[in-house]
Amino acid sequence: MAAGTRTRTGSRGAGGGRPTPVRTGRKHLFAAYDLGKDKLYGHVKTTKNRSTFLEFCRYLRTLYPAEVRIAIVCDNFSPHLTTRKCQRVGLWAEANNVEIAYTPTNSSWLNRIEAQFTALRYFALDGTDHGSHREQASMIRRYIIWRNKHAEDQQLREIVDRANVA
Prior knowledge:
Pfam families: DDE_3
Shape: globular
GO molecular function, one term: nucleic acid binding
Order of helices and strands: EEEEHEHEHHH
CATH topology: Nucleotidyltransferase, domain 5
CATH class: Alpha Beta
Strand order of the largest sheet: 1-2
Domain Tc1-like transposase DDE: 23-125
Protein name: Transposase
CATH architecture: 2-Layer Sandwich
Strand content: 15-25%
Structural class: alpha+beta
Region (Disordered): 1-24
CATH superfamily: Ribonuclease H-like superfamily/Ribonuclease H
Largest sheet: 2 strands, antiparallel
């Protein structure tokens, strides 16, 4: 069971009856993959909106000199988009030498980071039952640190290569 739900069985914790899930909220992983350096970056946040997306983009921008143009590939989730109503993403990108590219609808497999998520699930999440969001976020952060130090690990390479279809 993923962090974010707990089950309680019966009344007053006694047996009998069906377990009822008790929601404890969600956490969201903002992640980026640098193809040139073969490095994964990630922040776990409590909200997933345009402001937190821009906060993560600002962090990514600090990793490279201002004169280096960077490209951020995103899916079409609404906080990533510039709309008539909210142009913050596009204006920020234009002012900061950043190109935001979007994968076509239902084509997330074109984004190279998806294979990295397959490895993250395999090494840090599969077969686990994290007791809290904090514990799960810690495992994700520890995996990212390990992954960046062991980018040439044979098992990691096999999982990523198998998942990379694009």
